[in-house]
Amino acid sequence: MIPSSLLETREFDAANYIETPADVAAYLKLAAAEGEGPEELTSALGVILRSKGGQRLSLAAFVGLLHEVGLEMRVSPV
């Protein structure tokens, strides 16, 4: 058995495990099911962006990502 003083841990980051469109869909569904507002969805989208290698995607790539998981984006006046 390894002494606990020798174990190193790091914070879990779901972005390290999201690789396929199915992973994206599952993660978004989980965020929607557990969330109570847009903050959870925004956070989930940030994790997905990090899983794709960065913090920025073109609008076309973002819309394509949403379409892959069966979502669409709508714009309406405020």
> Rg to the nearest angstrom?
16 Å
Query: SSE order, as H and E?
Result: HHH
| Low-confidence runs | none
Shape annotation: elongated
Helix content: 40-55%
Helix/strand structural class: mainly alpha
- In percent, how much strand structure appears in the residues? under 5%
Mean pLDDT over the full residue set: 81
First-residue to last-residue Cα separation? 60 Å
* Main pleated sheet: none
For the secondary structure, the number of strands is 0
Q: Work out the helix count.
A: 3
Give a topology summary.
Elements (H helix, E strand, L loop, with lengths): L20 H14 L3 H14 L7 H10 L10
Helix pairs in contact: 1-2
Characterize this entry briefly.
This protein is mainly α and 78 residues long. The chain is 49% helix and 0% strand.
Structure, described:
There is one protein chain. The N and C termini lie far apart (60 Å). With 78 residues, the protein is mainly α. Helix content is 49%, strand content 0%. The longest helix has 14 residues, at 21-34. Helix 1 (21-34) packs antiparallel against helix 2. The chain has 3 helices and no strands.
Key traits:
mainly alpha; 49% helix; 3 helices; 78 residues
